[in-house]
Design brief:
The protein is mainly α. The chain is 60% helix and 5% strand. The protein folds into two domains: 7-156, Serine Threonine Protein Phosphatase 5, Tetratricopeptide repeat (Alpha Horseshoe), CATH 1.25.40.10; 171-280, no CATH class. The chain has 13 helices and two strands. Helix 4 runs antiparallel to helix 5 (118-133). The mean pLDDT is 93.
Amino acid sequence: MNKGRTHKKIAPLDFAANEFDNTVDGAFVWGPERSELFDKFYYAEELSDPELASQELNNIIRQDPQFIDAYNSLGWWEIDSENYGNAKGLFEKAFRTGNGVIPKDFSGRIIWGFIDNRPFLRSMKGLGLCHLFTNDFGKALQIFNKILGYNPSDNQGIRALAIHCNLALGGFDAVLEICSRYPEDTLPDTLYGKVIAYYRLNKMPKAREALNEAIDYCPLVAKELARRRHKRIESEFPGSVTSGGADEAYDYWERLGQYWTDPDLIDFMRVATTTSSQSK
C-alpha cells in the first residue's frame, strides 16, 4: 500500500537561558528537525516571483505555525507595498509566537549574536516600524526600547528608530540618554539627533559642540538639511545607503527633515556649516 509523504514531527519552539559572569542570556531553540524548513525558507527568499515566494512561505507556516521568519518575510513585503495594517498583523503573529515561549520572569538579554534569536528580533523591529510608519510613536518606542534592552549592542540600528520616536514625542532628554549609550556612534540619527535635543533643551554650547561633531562626521547631511529644495538621490545599492554619501544625507532628510523645519534651528545650523567650511 502506498503511503503519502510524511513530514518529520516538529518539536515546539523552545527557549533556554544561561548565566555567565552575572549576565543572563536567552536563546531560542529551534531543533534539528526544522533544518529542512529552513532550507525551504532560504529557497523562498531567493525567488524573484513574489506570488510563488508567498506560496512557499505560507506552505512553511502551514507545516510549522511557529516559523517566525516566514511571517517576517511576508510582513516586509507588505511594508514595501505600504500595506501597514497587513504587515502589522503578520509581525504581531511572529512576535507573539516568540514571546509566548519566553518565561514571564526572564529579565536577561536576547542578543543578535545568537543566530537563533534573529527571527524574533526581526519580528519586533517589523512590528515597531508598523507603528512608526503610522505615527503611533508611543507604541513604536515601547517596542524599540524593549529591543535595545534585549540586545544592547544594537546590530539592527534600533537606536535610530528610538531617537525618531523620542523626537516626535518631545523626549529630548531620552534622545540624549540613548546617544550616551553609543558614544562612538557615527549614524546621522544619533549625531544630528543630539543637536536637536540640546537645542530644544536650550543648552546652546552643547548644541554647538554636537553640531560641529555632526558636521565633521556627516557634512553632507548638514548641507542637505540647509537646502531650500531637495532632489531625490538614489542609492547605488537599493535597500542601503552609502556611509557619508549624498544618498545617506538625502535619506536622513527624507526621514527626519520634518524636525529641521524651524527657521531658527536651520539658521543655527547654517552658521555652523559656514564657519566649518571657512575653517578648512
